[in-house]
């Protein structure tokens, strides 16, 4: 009477779980040992004024070799907690800071 086809379940859930969350931002501090502070800026529309406003967050990221300097544009990825405040790692350098 009615034909039922069984399809394989979509494999999107495990793939999404494996994918790391990555962000791009500027290093604003490298004074701690093996840690840099990365500022991530995003633009959002103000709910009342309708104006575009810049919002920012700062994340502490692990820098094993202490190789990143203030002003560098880096990509960070979320991982396991390394310390109380630090659960991000620097993946790569996108742009070095300009030296004046």
Kindly name the structural category: mainly beta
Number of helices in the DSSP assignment = 1
Shape: extended
The largest pleated sheet is described as: 5 strands, mixed, barrel
Radius of gyration: 20 Å
Termini gap: 78 Å
The CATH architecture designation is Beta Barrel
Order of helices and strands: HEEEEE
Kindly estimate the percentage of residues that lie in beta strands according to DSSP: over 45%
**What strand order characterises the main sheet?**
1-2-3-5-4
Question: What is the typical, i.e. mean, pLDDT?
Answer: 89
Q: What is the CATH top level name?
A: Mainly Beta
What does this structure look like?
This protein is mainly β and 100 residues long. It has a single domain, classed as Nucleic acid-binding proteins (OB fold (Dihydrolipoamide Acetyltransferase, E2P), Beta Barrel), CATH 2.40.50.140. It is built from one helix and five strands. Strands 1-2-3-5-4 form a five-stranded mixed β-barrel. The longest helix has 7 residues. The chain is extended. It starts with 11 loop residues before the first helix and ends in a 5-residue tail after the last strand.
